[in-house]
Amino acid sequence: MNAVTTAPGTASRALAVFVSLSLLSLSASTPSPSPSPSAAEDPRWLARAVVAAADNRAAPFAVVDKKNARVFVFDAAGRLQGWSPVLLGLARGDDSVPGIGEREMSRIRPDERTTPAGRFKTEPGRNTQGEDIVWIDYDAAVSMHRVRTTDKSERRLQRLASPSVADNRISYGCINVPAAFYDAYIKPALGSRRGVVYVLPETVAPHQRFEFLGPSVL
């Protein structure tokens, strides 16, 4: 599930421009806090709840929206720094299969390739090629890293650039980020210190994975 270093191509540069322009629009339309279930699924609302509960322990953090295949990066005060499309685990689900981190990738079935949901204490790390990554769940071998493009048939850069989220499910569980976005936002926020990543679930309500929300969001 580890990434390999790749030079951003035309698709990556176009994606970076798209993200920058979209961020301006996103920042200008921040909704007011709401205790409804739909609001709890909004990464920006969740970020405000995180800071209000001091759940991030004054550390920068990221929110991964699996339903919309996006990652949002916030500073320690909950201010949005940037967002980007991401690639996620092929299979739908919010839990990692027990012991999956100890298996060879060739022995992982398609239905086991999930990106787990919940609150994760992150730490910087390196893969077997020596490239820097951010560990989400070390035991399950789930990390956030630059998009992997070794298998050209998977068309990962094209999937990231596509307006559809249906084709963003391809990884073994790791969160693949455009290289330009990783270097500009992920690495400064999470690549040199411990942080927190909140992965929104897709099969259960957010309060079932984030205790700080409490039952009031139902």
From TrEMBL:
Source organism: Variovorax beijingensis
Entry protein name: L,D-transpeptidase
Keywords: Signal
Signal peptide: 1-28
